[in-house]
User: Fold this.
Amino acid sequence: MRRDVMMQGGMDGLALAQFARARFPALKIALMTGYAEQLEAISSQDYEITPKPCSPVTLTDVIARVTT
Assistant:
């Protein structure tokens, strides 16, 4: 599976989200991806997921959902 962001050590954005959620279960997390095949897999893990590119309105809506 492709990942949008590769970080040192092979961790990607989804792995970072999973790590953060494990440490802070109530943490609200939003992810963004340009790969359509990731949308379903990530959304089934209870994260806000937004496709790239997205409009400013869509991004504002996602941010509002995870900060309220």
